[in-house]
Structure formats: C-alpha cells, structure tokens
Write a structure and sequence with these properties.
The complex is a heterodimer of chains A (369) and B (209). Chain A is built from 12 helices and 16 strands. By secondary structure, chain A is α+β, with helices and mostly antiparallel strands. In chain B, strand 2 and strand 3 form a beta hairpin. The model of chain B has no long low-confidence stretch (mean pLDDT 92). Classes of the chains: A alpha+beta (369), B alpha/beta (209).
C-alpha cells in the first residue's frame, strides 16, 4: 500500500509509530471488545480516571459498560503467568468524562502492559519504552520517575493517621510545601523529610544522592538509582527526571510510577506504573507494570496551522470534456497536490489555487499561496 | 518567555508589585488603558490580566505557565496544577455563617446557600452531615434572611457585610490566601525561570516581614 503520510494527524502517526515500537520488543496486540461487565469497574472505581461510566443492559439482562479503561479488562482476561512475562500492547478507544468537562467523550489511548514474574529487566524495558514513546512524539520530552516505596517510607516514618497521610500525599502531588508544613504543625510532627522529598527533583543522580543521605535505610532508593542509571546510559540522559510529585493511588500502585510530558502539550501525555496491589485485589499472583499514552492530547500537537482545505480547486462547465478534466486532475494529484473539481466555487472553502478548465486549456484565476 | 496570568483587580496589582520587586518588572503594565497583555522580553516575562476565577483554568490548560489564584478557587475547581507558594496576601477565610442565634437542628437536612458548591459538599461530607446545596451566584447573605437557606458558605474578610445583615460566622472551613500555581508540563520545561520567580517571591516576602 502506498500513501502520503502527510494526510495523517499527529495522533494517527503516533499510533503507527508506537505500534511498530512495541511489536519490535515482542509485545503482541491485544484487541478487546468495546464492552465489559459494569461490575468490574464498580469494584475498582478508584483505579479509574473518572468513576462515571456509560452503562446499558445487555440482551441477557447483565449490566454492561462501555470501557472507560483498558488495564482492568486486560487483567480480568489474563491468567497468572508463572515463571514468564506476558507482554501486550493495545490501541483502543475508551469512554469517560474528562476532567473539567462534564460530558462523556471517546478517547483514543495506546499503551502496554507487562504481566507475570516481573524482574528488574522488565521494569527497565517498560521505562525505556515509555521514554522511547515520548521521544517518538517529540525531541523535547521528559519522563518523570517516582517510586511509591520511597514516598511511603517517608510517610511511614512520620507516624501520622491514615487521614493525614492522604492529605499529605495530595500535597506531595501538588508540590505544596506550605500545606505540608501546616498539616504537620497541626499534627505536631516534623515535616522536614517530606519537604525535602518534595523540593528535591530533577536530575536522577543528584536526587538519589540527596535521598541516600535523607533516608539511608530505604532499599527503594537503590532500585530507583539502578533504573535512572540504566536509562541514562542507554540514550535517555537529560530526559529522565526523578520527581516525587508523580503519585498513584496507594491501594493500587506500588514501586515505580511515572508520567511523561512533551513540550507544547499542557498536561502529561503518558502515565504508568507498577500495579501489583491491583493484581492482588483481583486475585492474581503475578506482578504487573504498564503505561498508557493519551493520544487525544496529540490531536493539536505539531499543528502547522495549515489553513487550507485543499490545494487546488478546478472549476469546469457543464458538458466539459471528461478526458480533458480527468487529465488535468490526474496531473495535479500525481504532483502531490490535493484537488477538488467543482462547477461552482463552494462557500467558505480555503484553497491555495483556483483554476478554470477552458476549451483551450487551463486558466489560473487565483493564487493564494 | 514565561506566561503569567494575574487576577484582575486590587489583588492582581499587589501580586504584580511582588513580581516586580522580585526582579520581573514590566513597566508597561502600569499604563492606563484597556490592554490585557504586557510583555518584557528582557525579563523574559509576559503578564496578562484575567478574571480571578479563570486564572486556574488558564494555568491548567497551559495558556499561562504560572498564575496567582485564591485558595478558594483551587479548592472549588480542584485544577490539576502545582501549588508552589503561599503569597500570604489576599487573606480571608471560607466560613459557614447563619442568622444570629441560629440553632442547628441536626435532625433535619441543612439547607446551605453558596457559590462554592464543591467546598461545601466536601466540608459537610467530612463531618457526615446531610445537606441541600442551593447554588447562588451572588448576594449569598440574603438567603438565610429570606428563609431560602439555614446557613451560607462564603468568603469572609472582615465580617462587616455579615454584621450589617445580622449574620455571624458559626464555623471556619479553611483559611484563604493567594497562591502561586504552575502548569505541570510547563514546570518541566521552564523550571529554571519558575524557580527564579519563586526564589524572588520568597525573598520579597522575607523583606516585607
């Protein structure tokens, strides 16, 4: 098949690019149904971006939902992988309410999941593929890496109630140092370690050096250091930051959590993490890690502001010679231009060039480019 | 160039003053006129005036890299932004007020009039109280006087408006002040400039205190 890739939108190009990337690392495509039993989402509401789901009753009386999420369906439909790792990728539409918009929308999402006996290599591979996915979208990207174990270690050492812990975790996500201070003052506990954790971000090596002094007993720092170093050695130096403001729901996520940003897009385009706790909640022994890329955010990315609907409009009269008209159009399309043949100029059409087919040849009426 | 959304009005002018003292001046902003966008390429900063309640939206959606918004707006709309610094100005509190001598009958649903539905819902959910929210867009103080609601949830600065309408504060929900917020993606790519502004603001605050 031969086609001009310039007709693809940024999100469509990304789908092809990422599909080929994930396949090259042995991930197989996971195609699923658009519907899933509602019950799956009710039991794991907090795992979803939004708890509002489009539901309907199936012909057999079962309450079904249009998929608001892909990961839950993949876990539900996969068995434990003892001694090996199942690697799948997907590109699917999900249906949910976006934040700040009180209406359901169809969101194109791609991503991958790695389920089974996860080891350090598998974690590295997923983090590397996350970095590579961002790199394929833009050269100006950042992967923010965090470790729930480190954040929880610091929170545990503070000995606060679960309610206060939740408040503090929210503050960590907002880099909200003044609120951390105020909450800790009320609880009469020291905020120093948590403040340090929130205000130390950026270059992985530098952050890990600070962490080694701050929490020398915490084993997770070494894991973090190992991954940062592997990513930096393999071509992602300067693009991988450690930032503990990336957090996940502690009931589902453990270990590494990460978020990807691309310059020019106002929110994170990639989000992922290790979700062994979710696996356990769904009665699976296997461990798991994965990420999603929000392709809907790429729709306007790298928009070159092309303000034309078509390159050329060719006007012809009724009864014009079909061979002559076809010949001109073919010549223009062969040269890579888009052409619309019209008897009258359509209203509100933006075009670069306006031509008219005459008996003696083609007359140029307008040139706008 | 760092895009900064400032809240229109007295608070915004105070905020600009803090930014200017922190080394991010833009003298053209002081000129009278209807212009809304002001730029100082040398300082690498572009300011624009927006409605105070819209600052968080401009920042969350990335039209502004940073901005200054009241804590009331952040609690009400819960934008996905970083809350970097408490500027310690525009101080007031979010409070529950009622007619003087009001007795809270906990046997029945409490009718609450407010502009801040989300804050109200969260506050009463935390204490397990059943409420009926009446969302109003202004003149909230009238609601309990006319029997539209039992109490109101609103911003209280000096309390004089309440006093004039024979109302009093019966509970403080949260103290409010102006906060420096940042778009999460902008923070990744413009962290040096944002950190310089934060450091400048911190110094300004120390000098003022």
């Amino acid at each position: 098949m031969n086609f001009n890739s310039s007709v693809l939108r940024s999100d469509e190009k990304a789908v092809f690019e990422l599909r080929s990337l994930y396949s090259s690392y042995g991930y197989s495509r996971y195609k699923m149904s658009k519907f899933e039993e509602y019950d799956l989402y009710v039991r794991n509401k907090e795992f979803l971006v939004s708890d509002r789901v489009i539901t309907f009753t199936d012909t057999n009386g079962k309450l079904m939902a249009l998929k608001p999420d892909v990961t839950l369906s993949i876990i539900r439909n996969s068995e434990d992988a003892d001694g090996y790792v199942r690697k799948v990728y997907y590109d699917e539409n999900v249906y949910r309410v976006s934040k700040g918009n009180d209406a359901f929308g169809e969101i194109m999402q791609t991503g991958l999941e790695c389920i089974g006996d996860i080891d350090d290599y598998n974690i590295y591979e997923v983090l590397m593929l996350a970095s590579e996915s961002l790199k394929r979208i833009s050269d100006e990207y950042v992967l923010d890496l965090s470790h729930m174990g480190v954040v929880e270690y610091v929170l545990d050492s503070m000995g606060v109630s679960s309610e206060t812990r939740e408040k503090l975790l929210l503050c960590v996500g907002e880099k909200n140092v003044h609120e951390i201070r105020s909450v800790c003052e009320k609880e009469a506990v020291s905020s120093a370690a948590l403040e340090k954790l929130v205000t130390t971000y950026g270059n992985g090596e530098r952050v890990c050096a600070v962490l080694r002094e701050l929490i020398p007993e915490c084993d997770h720092v070494a894991s973090l250091e190992k991954m940062v170093s592997a990513l930096e050695k393999n071509g992602y130096a300067g693009h991988v930051n450690v930032d503990f403001s990336v957090t996940g729901n502690v009931r589902y996520y453990n270990g590494f959590v990460f978020k990807g940003f691309v310059n020019g897009i106002a929110s994170g385009v990639l989000s992922g993490g290790q979700y062994d706790k979710l696996m356990a909640r769904m009665n699976r022994r296997s461990r798991a890690i994965g990420f999603a890329v929000y392709l809907d955010l790429l729709e306007r990315f790298a928009d070159n502001g092309d303000s034309y609907d078509v390159d050329t409009v060719i006007l012809y009269d009724e009864g014009a010679d079909l061979d002559a008209l076809n010949g001109v159009i073919k010549m223009l399309t062969d040269s890579g231009r888009s052409v619309t043949a019209q008897r009258r100029l359509p209203e509100k059409l933006h075009y670069k060039q306006l031509l008219r087919l005459q008996e003696r040849g083609v007359e140029i009426l307008e040139n706008n480019a | 160039m760092l895009n900064v959304a400032l809240p229109k009005g007295r608070l915004g002018e105070k905020v600009y003053d803090m930014f200017a003292r922190a080394g991010f001046e833009c003298p053209s902003i002081l000129e009278k006129g209807r212009k809304l966008i002001f730029e100082n390429p040398e300082a690498g900063v572009r300011y624009f005036w927006v409605k105070p309640s819209d600052v968080a939206i401009y920042v969350e959606r990335g039209a502004a890299d940073i901005g200054v918004a009241g804590k009331d707006i952040l609690l009400e709309y819960e934008p996905d932004v970083y809350e970097l610094f408490d500027l310690d100005i525009g101080k007031c509190r979010m409070a529950v007020a009622a007619k003087k001598g009001f007795r809270d009958n906990t046997e029945r649903t409490l009718k609450v009039a407010t502009k801040f539905s989300n804050i109200t819902r969260n506050h009463y959910a935390a204490i397990g109280r059943d409420i009926d929210i009446i969302h109003l867009n202004g003149s909230i103080e009238i609601a309990p006087i006319l029997g539209l609601s039992d109490v109101i949830v609103d911003i209280v600065e000096t309390g004089s408006t309440l006093k004039e309408n024979d109302l009093e504060v019966i509970d403080t929900i949260v103290p409010i002040s102006a906060r420096l917020i940042a778009n999460k993606a902008s923070f990744k790519f413009k962290s040096d400039a944002i950190e310089r502004i934060m450091a400048g603001l911190e110094n300004t605050e120390k000098v003022t205190k």
